[in-house]
Amino acid sequence: MEQQPIHKNEVFLTGIVLEPPEYSHCNHDERFYKFSMEIMRLSGQKDVLVVVLNERLAEQVGFFCGARIHVEGQLRSYNNKSGKGSRLVLTVFARTLSLSEAEDHNEILLCGVLCKPPVLRSTPLGRSICDLMLAVNRPYGRSDYIPCIAWGALAGETGLLRIGDSLSFEGRIQSRTYHKMTAQGVECRVAYEVSVMCLREIEMQSCIFLPAGRS
């Protein structure tokens, strides 16, 4: 019997709907929709996140532009092969959604393994930053690859990790705009990442490996 880390991906958001849901894609004959929601930070800066939900959930909630909502779900990633925008796209997959009167809230709990070496660097003012890429397993053999960033003392601590090491933490999903030069000129794009706020103890689960030929 071996102990394996429990992979975790839990998102809790409360904010304002910026637009009505629009059709996104179809998967296994199920239609999915997407919309943007705005969440205010304590600093006054705003994060604008993309939320994906299935058709049944969209019909049950019936929310509208400007509504305050609470979303619980997971942060999902996929590779954008269109050649436009970021190659790695992050969206929040909503499992539950409801109207809410609570204050803005942006929280994510992640536990996974590092799939790239941490990159430790400094800002022009000398503050430490560490860029991380976390792989978080989900059912049916799939994984989400989530870019994360740690600051200050957390940057120094996570910068010592290696590929394959487990990492568990509480954080915030944040958006930032940047400009990219393309053949059509300068384009304004949005990137998403998770800001590490607090490291957590890694939860373990028991795994029994059966001899070959047994089930």
In short:
The chain has 215 residues and is mainly β.
Report on the architecture of this protein.
The model has no long low-confidence stretch (mean pLDDT 89). This protein is 7% helix and 63% strand. It is globular and about 45 Å long. The two termini are 15 Å apart. The longest helix has 7 residues, at 55-61. The chain has 215 residues and is mainly β. It has 2 helices and 14 strands, in the order E-E-E-E-E-H-E-E-E-E-E-E-H-E-E-E. The strands form 2 sheets. Strands 2, 3, 4, 5, 6, 7, 8, 9, 10, 11, 12 and 13 form a 12-stranded mixed beta sheet that branches. A two-stranded antiparallel ribbon has the order 1-14.
Number of helices: 2
Q: Calculate Rg over CA atoms.
A: 19 Å
Shape category: globular
Structural class: mainly beta
Q: Strand fraction band? A: over 45%
Major pleated sheet = 12 strands, mixed
What is the β-strand count? Answer: 14
Helix content: under 10%
**Separation of the first and last Cα atoms:** 15 Å
| Parts with pLDDT < 50 across at least 5 consecutive residues | none
Mean pLDDT: 89
Order of H and E elements: EEEEEHEEEEEEHEEE
Topology:
Elements: E1 2-5, E2 8-17, E3 22-27, E4 30-40, E5 46-54, H1 55-61, E6 68-79, E7 88-99, E8 105-114, E9 119-122, E10 128-138, E11 142-151, H2 152-158, E12 166-182, E13 185-199, E14 204-207
Parallel strand pairs: 5-7, 11-13
Antiparallel strand pairs: 1-14, 2-4, 2-6, 2-8, 3-4, 4-5, 6-7, 8-10, 8-12, 9-10, 10-11, 12-13
